[in-house]
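User: Please predict the structure of the protein below. I'd like the answer in structure-token form so I can feed it into my own downstream comparison script.

Assistant: Understood. Taking the following sequence of 178 residues as input:
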Amino acid sequence: MLRRAHPRLLSPLLAVALVGALTGCSLFDGDKPGTPQAQPSAPAAGGGSQREIPTTVAAGQVSLLQRLGADGPLRTLSVERDGAWQCLDCAGDGVTSRGTLAPELTERLQVLLANPGLAAETDQARKYRSTCIDALTSSLLTSSGLITSQDCPGEERTPVAGEILLLLTQATPAEVKG
């Protein structure tokens, strides 16, 4: 009976954690996000100020927030419309990486982000509820809304958001590890 209580408690706790994680300003912190770099830059140590996490994105932009379990480090990846990306704490070591997606990946990402089916995959539209404890939780922040998924047995992947997640994790240092 105690086991059934965990999923009911987990959803509100994850919602509170996500809201807490999403309170901040723009990830790019005054940088010119339209300035692309050809290859990922050498990692730089994270700054001494509090980490800033995006709370909204414009059309054509996406942010990925990932956390393994409740106590794992929060990895954040933001991608601009032109394919320029910035990843904070990608390996859980406080390092920030930057780069630019290849042109064909940028084009594919824009097609996926413009897909009208993405709106039906948001947490609100699906009435999404977290079901696993200590799983890798990935949240995509898109102009359509927040889309969360967990790497748990039996959880179905959303088709469009699942492709976006795969593209981002394969093309940048934000890796799905679970």
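That's the full token string. Helices lie at 2-21, 103-113, 123-126, 159-171.
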